[in-house]
Specification:
The chain has four helices and 43 strands. It has 715 residues and is mostly beta strands. Among the domains are: 53 residues, no CATH class; 102 residues, Sandwich (Immunoglobulin-like), CATH 2.60.40; 117 residues, Immunoglobulin-like (Sandwich); 98 residues, Cadherins (Immunoglobulin-like), CATH 2.60.40; 116 residues, Sandwich (Immunoglobulin-like), CATH 2.60.40. It has a four-stranded mixed sheet, with no helix packed on it. Strands 16-23-22-19 form a four-stranded mixed sheet, with no helix packed on it.
Length: 715
């Protein structure tokens, strides 16, 4: 059984020993701690008592309240920024006697005041001008102050305060803007005009006697370098030379000057401020001295040399270059690589930080390829620049693994092979780009059960032979494995001392050997057969090349069309045509000589669709024929009417003369004859009889026929 004391404590205990509260606690009213004496008793009456301490934890369950009683505050206008107007205080019951951690804020919108979130001090944050709207009409400013005990989701309370703005006589000369900013280059000559203050200031008083003002009291750090020409003009000029790089110069870039602007006439102020005899206004002038870039950046060293291990990780910093600029203030220097820093495989293997000058590597360095890299870095201040050379010496490190040939070998050996035999003449040959040939060590890492195999020499050479070190013993059961898969390791640390092996970087090459032991061999020992790599290439149609057959087909059609067009152009030129200039030289009848027993006659037949503009009579047959004066073509005249007497005599005489010379030629009428005359002569030569059956013969054919008859009759 469990019991607790004192009985007045607001707690109870159950049979299970669970302690429960019997009331709702209030940290602000109830005790913060309870001590309970818990007694446990067993059925035989034995008991034990222990004290349980129960602490009541405070939670935020009370709203804060304001302790400030004042609600109305009065202040004059034109208070300085940051002036404390009121101190608002509050308290949180949850905090008891300890200082309350409260948060103050102004909920109402205003541009004149702000409240310190921690202290509750209301301060001036904006210019308070009683003469300007809206304060001209409403001089009372109401603020809703809010206090809460947590920045978010806490308990809060609000209070309204009123700030009354009292008016003062504040009509001094006004300058707009009240702060002027001008620039001047360093080393500007004395007497240089900077600014005319009268262009920015005025007095709003209506009476001319009250709107006159003067400029006095030029002050500020470095004001000895400036001066006003006169109090009335307000012209500000340089009186000294400012050199920013001069050690005697304070190194100020912006000079803040103040000039007092005041009324010449005595203002009439309220009796509330009898001690005022004048009202002044202050104008601020910020003169910025523009630095001139006079000096080139200068590297601390004309050249830099960095030594870097070839196994340095990509991206690591290998050194830093630094340049100085004597200009003040110092110009921002930008670093860059302008030449070099590349290899055959990489355009850039070095990178420099543009702002810090740190040089980093972008690609793995290789001593065996390039031992030294030289490149040019540039330091620039955007206007002037200078360069320096950087030499990176690559330090050799053992980073190349031994490469051995062959790296895999398979062999079969007889079970009774003699000890000391070079197994199948196997020899391993190793190379290492960064190690001496004597630096190799050979050892079998795994698979060498009962140590049957070894390499000779085991170190100091780049070649080694596989040797049978001990005989096989399968009969006694010492050996049970008939296939040995040996993994051979080749290291390049043979020349390294034992003391240096802890720090020396060692590389290892691997060779795999497969040895099969043959019991009672009946065939010759074989080694790994060679193999041939056959590469077959096929031209496959790609769906993406759909345009290829289309272009080929279209090109073929265009080529066939072009060939057909050329054939049509050449076809008319293939026909043979006689020359037109020799038509009249062709005789109508080729009369052979009588002394010759036989005569071969060759007749050229020409069928032309032409105009026959001439007529003549065949001297053999006496028939009329027509001919063309240009081409010499002839044909029998269809009409059998006789020729006119005169025309017939001309034709006969012409024919007789031609026949005496061995050539039959017909005279053609003159080209100048008119078509009417030709028609009259044609009509006069028409015979009255009808044409015979042989009228369709040409003059040449009729002549041949008569000539043959004449020769037969002579024979």
């Amino acid at each position: 059984q469990y019991s607790l004391l004192p009985a007045t404590a607001p707690f109870s205990i159950r049979e299970s020993g669970a302690i429960f509260s019997t009331k709702e606690f209030d940290y602000e009213k109830d005790p913060h701690c309870y001590f309970l004496n818990i007694t446990v008793t067993d059925p035989d009456g034995l008991n034990s008592t222990r004290t349980v301490n129960i602490n009541i934890i405070n939670i935020n369950d009370e709203r804060p309240y304001f302790t400030t009683k004042q609600r109305i505050y009065r202040i004059p206008e034109e208070q300085s920024l940051g002036t404390t107007v009121a101190n608002i205080t509050a308290k949180d019951p949850d905090d008891e006697d300890s200082p309350s951690r409260l948060f103050y804020s102004i909920q109402s919108s205003n541009r004149y005041f702000s409240i310190n979130p921690a202290t509750g001090a209301v301060q001036v944050t904006g210019r308070i001008d009683r003469d300007a709207l809206p304060l001209r009409l409403h001089p009372n400013i109401s603020l809703m102050v809010w206090v809460e005990d947590s920045p978010s989701s806490g308990h809060a309370r609000e209070m309204e305060i009123t700030i009354v703005i009292d008016d003062v006589n504040d009509n001094p000369p006004e300058c707009n803007p009240s702060a002027l900013r001008k620039e001047a280059n360093e080393n500007t000559a004395p007497g240089t005009f900077l600014v005319d203050l009268r262009n920015y200031c005025k007095d709003i008083d209506a009476d001319p006697s009250n709107n006159q003002f003067i400029f006095t009291g030029l002050s500020g750090f470095g004001s000895n370098n400036f001066a006003l020409e006169s109090n009335v003009s307000g012209r500000l000029v340089m009186t000294g030379t400012i050199d920013l790089e001069n050690p005697a110069n304070p190194g100020v870039e912006v000079y803040t000057l103040t000039v007092r602007v005041q009324d010449i006439a005595h203002p009439n102020y309220s009796s509330k401020y009898p001690f005022y005899i004048s009202f002044d206004n202050i104008i601020y002038i910020y003169i910025r001295i523009k630095p001139v870039n006079e000096f080139f950046p200068v590297f601390r060293n004309l050249s830099y040399v960095f030594s870097v291990s070839e196994i340095t990780k990509v991206g690591s910093s290998i050194g830093r270059v630094h340049a100085l600029d004597k200009d003040w203030p110092p110009n921002a220097i930008t670093y860059s690589i302008v030449a070099g820093a590349g290899t055959r495989d990489y355009t850039n293997i070095f990178w420099i930080s543009p702002t810090k000058g740190d040089v980093r590597i972008l690609a793995r360095l290789d001593y065996e390829t390039t031992q030294k890299h030289i490149f040019i870095v540039q330091a620039s201040d955007q206007e002037k620049s200078t360069t320096a050379s950087v030499t990176v010496n690559v330090l050799e490190v053992n980073d190349e693994e031994p490469v051995c040939s062959p790296n895999f070998f398979s062999v079969q050996i007889p079970v009774n092979l003699a000890v000391g035999t070079n197994i199948n003449g196997f020899r391993i040959e190793c190379q290492d780009r960064d190690s001496d040939p004597r630096s190799f060590r050979y050892f079998i890492n795994e698979g060498n059960e009962n140590s049957h195999f070894t390499f000779s020499p085991s170190a100091g050479s780049n070649t080694s032979h596989l040797i049978l070190a001990s005989r096989f013993d399968y009969e006694s059961g010492l050996d049970t494995n008939w296939v040995y898969n040996l993994r051979v390791h080749i290291t390049d640390d043979n020349l390294v001392s034992a003391r240096d092996k802890t720090t020396h970087l060692t590389k290892t090459g691997t060779v795999t050997l497969s040895i099969r032991v043959i019991p009672n061999p009946t065939t010759a020992t074989t080694t790994t057969p060679g193999f041939t790599v056959v590469t077959r290439r096929e031209n496959l149609y790609s769906p993406s090349a759909w345009y290829v057959p289309f272009v080929v087909t279209l090109g073929g059609l265009l080529l066939l069309g072009l060939l057909g067009y050329l054939g049509l152009l050449l076809l008319p030129r293939l026909h043979c045509c006689p020359p037109t200039g020799k038509a009249h030289s062709t005789p109508l009848i080729n009369v052979p000589e009588k002394k010759k027993p036989k005569k071969e006659v060759v007749v050229t037949m020409t069928n032309l669709n032409t105009v026959f503009d001439g007529e003549a009579r065949d001297p053999v047959t006496g028939r009329m024929y027509e001919f063309n004066t240009r081409s010499g073509a002839r044909r029998w005249k269809k009409s059998n009417e006789p020729l006119q007497p005169m025309l017939a005599m001309q034709v006969m005489s012409s024919a007789t003369e031609n026949s005496g010379q061995g050539v039959d030629r017909a005279e053609a009428p003159s080209k100048k004859e008119s078509s009417e005359k030709r028609k009259e002569r044609t009509a006069a030569t028409k015979p009255a009889a009808k044409p015979s059956a042989r009228q369709s013969e040409t003059p040449g054919q009729a002549g041949l026929r008569l000539q043959k008859k004449k020769e037969e009759s002579e024979d």
